Amino acid sequence: MGSPRGDQSPRPRESAKRGLTRGRVMNRFPEVMAHSTGAPLARDPGRVLLALKSPRERADVEQFLHGMEMFLEDEPESSHIPGERVNHTKSRYWAQARRPIDDERLQKIEQAGTAIGLDWVGPVYRMAGQEGRRGLMTPLPNVGVIKLRDGRDPDPARPGVPAALTRADGPQPALKEVPEKSRYLNGYRYFQIANVREVNAYQLRERVRQSPDGALVDFQFETMPLLTPTSIAPNDALFPQQWDMTRIEAGGPGTTGWDITTGVATVVVCVLDEGCDLNHPDLRFSAPGINLGTMLPDGAPTGNHGTACAGIVAATYDNGTGVTGVAGNARILPVAFDAWTDVEVAAGINYATANGADVISMSFGWNAWSPAIIDPAIQNAFNSDVVMCVATHNYNGPITYPATNPLVIAVGASDEIDNRKTPLSPDGENWGSNFGPAISVVSPGVHIPTTDIQGASGYNTTPGTGGDYDLVFNGTSSATPHVAGLAALIRSTYPGLSNVQVRAHIERTAQKVGAVAYADTVGRPNGSWNHEMGYGRINVYRALDEADVMIKDAPSDNGLEPYTGGNFWDFSDVVVRITDDNVFNPSDPLQSKNVERGQANYIYVRVTNNGSREARNVTVSTRITPFVGLQFVYPQDWTLTDATHVAPAALAATFGTVAAGASVIARFRIEAAQTKTLYGWEANNGWHGCLMAVVNADNDYAFATAPLTGDPITARRNNLAQRNLSVIDVLASAPATFHFIAGNRWNAEPRMTLQVDRSRLPAGMPLTLSLDEPGTVFPAVDFAGQVEQGEPRDEASCDSALVFLEETRVKTRFGCCTGILTLGKGSRFECNKQHKLRNVTVQGGDVVIRNGQRYVDITQPLVRVTMEKAAGIVYPLALRTTIPASAGAGQQYMIGVEQQNSQGMAVGGAGMVYVVR
């Protein structure tokens, strides 16, 4: 029988309106109801789901429907969306009617259906906001998924059945719990209704809601989608090469991931899908799986999709036949969907978790499933240290659930030229990989060779062994198992890593490919990110080979970027010693920041390999500034060598290797002459120059691909460190001044804030911030000759410039002698522009004027001073205090100051410790 194709039924609201006009409506099922997410559901009067008591062939169902003026829901004649497949099972079939179905027609269908063993008929609803047939579903009328309040006893007359389900007036539901499913539903209990034509789940839920007992925490439906939520559509053309494995550097020429590992048999990947061909010669399994419809072994196929996904994960490596999966020596745990319901998704995740899965590959997605049912299973798997990889889907639009859950790795598809797969990709297939805020990484998703159900039963219908493989498997369904396989390889090589750490390896080492811009993004700690490509396209070799060399920003720094444990400038792993004595104690200022004049001093930088792999060719570099600064910018402040960026001599700054988890100390020497230049020795004006350090390694891939911009650069990149803590000896009762520079030559912002911390000073100890310092204590810095960013340097730049039109001779006196100064034609005498901080506001104090100079009295523990500044200008400031007369020898007084940008983010700071001698 020929049948119409596609979504041809009238809209639910229009159909319902016509049904009302005819005077007949379907009272058994609500016309409108709410999805568990709150989205409205409207009944489609032209569609139903037929459930049979036992499996029947498709031809039998088609013949029955023909006599009822109905036809099977079927695939469209052409679809550009991979995965556009109607979710028929052997015992459930979706059907359309040529006119709306009311109660009278429903009864006729049920009466006539006895001939084919009809069990029940379910209504079809459309979810608001979902396009096409993707929004169509049936909340199963014969199932209640409930959660009881703690301590509520079941009805003693009906063991195992909650009393709240049976106390209402009217027909009583014939309920039976299915413990095999309840076991995997995180506290929900799964009940089937045998007399669904008398009391269905919709009516039962209303009874429960009206029950004064309040015994139930929640009542959910089991929801079955009309379309399978898988994310592929195979082609029948051949593509003989596994280009994908070469592209992601799993195998191929040169050194690749498979040179490190091909996986181990103790690592198990659950392919949560349509089961697997358990006899395929190229697949090996950890244990019998399960069918989620019957909750019985053994994970045999309910469709073709799972076998194809399994081959990408772990088709056997080096066995002389077929293809090789990413983790070819790992094992597969096959779990087979029956009806693709949300209950099956949750049960499948929980089953995989309970049965030893290290990784779960989920090549599907659908927004109409209930998060209330599925999210607890995801949380349980995450808490159990399982890595979950989920497809974003193929609609060229927003990412589908459950890939939107932040605990899973959301995987998009890349094309053969390393862009996001779109309808414009050169493969010519008219579909696109979904993208958006949840995306983690992408991997190849077109023309992927993989295993197929053997013979002519799978995607490739070639008879015999020629049909054992499909060479052009497509979609985010093919992309996802690549990532699951990579997770299996990481778990094979580094079994001690947590699921969070495995994910970080995958994301940090992804390649920044494609015609898109990657940028540092809030909430994305593993490198630069893009909403189409995530962190980039996965790279197996880099993920397995990654080292992560770092210089700690503070003792609590564990390497996560950005560092959020407090200030990153006072106690980093960079210290100064007056002798080369190998003492390294960055937490003690007296052992880490003392400097002796008239002699060489030494810098120690501790480098730690926070990665899983040995770091190769590790190099450390340092710079010292002849001033105390609050902000430093990469690369200039770390790489320049000039009057304000001095490079000390390296004594031990390169290391061939640094083992995973190990640390080494790089050593540098500050010569005696440099010490005099770089440190302030004037009475009461002492200061220590700021130290900066950077470490690189050949296989620190995250740092190599990082966008080294933005604030605060030191906290954002664990390869960079700075040390701005000064230690100065003082006498009791002596005045003490902490000079520093705010701003930076490469800072173009118009405003900044300084936060002064006096919380470690006695309450009565005075502290004043001076805003109009001359800067003479930092002679290497030319404050007078500064030019704002974009400011011209021509005759018009200063109205008071003096220009000599002809050669001029001037008799004048310089120092102790008198002489003639000859000025050539065109010589200029220009005024120096005075740069002052303006529009100063204070939280916790006021600006006061003393002798024409501006000050802020710092009386509160933390005081914020906000001011306007010029782009590219630095400003000398000072904190002035007086050491208490009662101070004893060895007593310490610490002052801190932090610079914040226009967004209130700390970009740097400095500290001063005064030690009474």
Automatic annotation (TrEMBL):
Keywords from the named record: Hydrolase, Protease, Serine protease
An individual GO BP term: proteolysis
Active site (record annotation): D273, H305, S477
The family this protein is said to belong to: Belongs to the peptidase S8 family.
Protein's UniProt name: Peptidase S8/S53 domain-containing protein
Organism of origin: Pseudoduganella lutea
Keyword Hydrolase: yes
Occurrences of domain Peptidase S8/S53 (ranges): 266-536
Molecular functions per Gene Ontology: serine-type endopeptidase activity
Compositionally biased spans, kind Basic and acidic residues: 8-17
Annotated spans, Disordered: 1-28, 150-174
InterPro entries attached to this UniProt entry: Peptidase_S8/S53_dom, Peptidase_S8/S53_dom_sf, Peptidase_S8_His-AS, Peptidase_S8_Ser-AS, Peptidase_S8_subtilisin-like, Peptidase_S8_subtilisin-rel
